[in-house]
Amino acid sequence: MVDVVRSFNEVDGSQWKHSLFGNPNDPETFRRRCEIAETLAEKNFDLAFQVIYDFTLPGIFMAVDIYAGVAASLAERKRGGQLTEFLRNIKGTIDDDDWDQVLGAAINVYANRHKERPDRLIDMLTSSHRKVLACVVCGRLKSAFQIASRSGSVADVQYVAHQALHANALPVLDMCKQWLAQYM
Fold it and tell me: Which superkingdom, per the lineage (predicted)?
């Protein structure tokens, strides 16, 4: 507890705001702990990790939600170096689905807010399906088709075809139709 309070300086506001004490069943305590862990994850990952796992609440509390919030926040502020360091810190602490969810939060911010193509983050995704979705969000329909077809996913190729039709990307739509004709 003392380490948590020390990691926040007086500029960050009242020290009570950074207290981990409280009733574990109280929604306000839960919310405050989540905010503290999210803020700490950027400043002192090891301490944030300890807070997340020491104060785990049954059922509704998941580290991946905090990690996704941190990744989105860093992407929002275009802190690429910090995001890379943060991702390096969490890599071995969560499973592949959660990893993809955290990356997806950052990818969505870059694609939708900044109108950028975070190719490096997309390459870090483990699931072919998530890579397809990320490429579509970033407007990389040909790449999305290539990933979907290599993975052999009819559903993903159909999804890319649908998106290509709406984006009027006729060459990609034709590739999808040709591939689907072979597999359906």
Answer: Eukaryota
Place of tokens 């170096």: 81
CB 180 within 8 A of CB 161: yes
The rounded radius of gyration (Å) of the Cα atoms in the chain is: 20
Interatomic CA distance for residues 140 and 131, integer angstroms = 10
- Letter string b/e over residues 88-106, b meaning 16 or more CB atoms within 10 A of that residue's CB: eebeeebeeebbbbbbbbb
pLDDT digits (tens, 9 = 90+) for 51-89: 777 766 333 447 788 899 899 999 999 999 999 999 998
| 91: DSSP letter | G
**50: its two tokens:** 């300890």
Q: Which pair of structure tokens corresponds to residue 54?
A: 């020491």
Supply the pTM of this predicted model: 0.77
Question: For 143-160, how does the pLDDT look when each residue is reduced to its tens digit (9 = 90+)?
Answer: 999 999 999 999 999 999
19, 55, 61, 138 from 31: Cα distances, Å: 11, 12, 10, 32
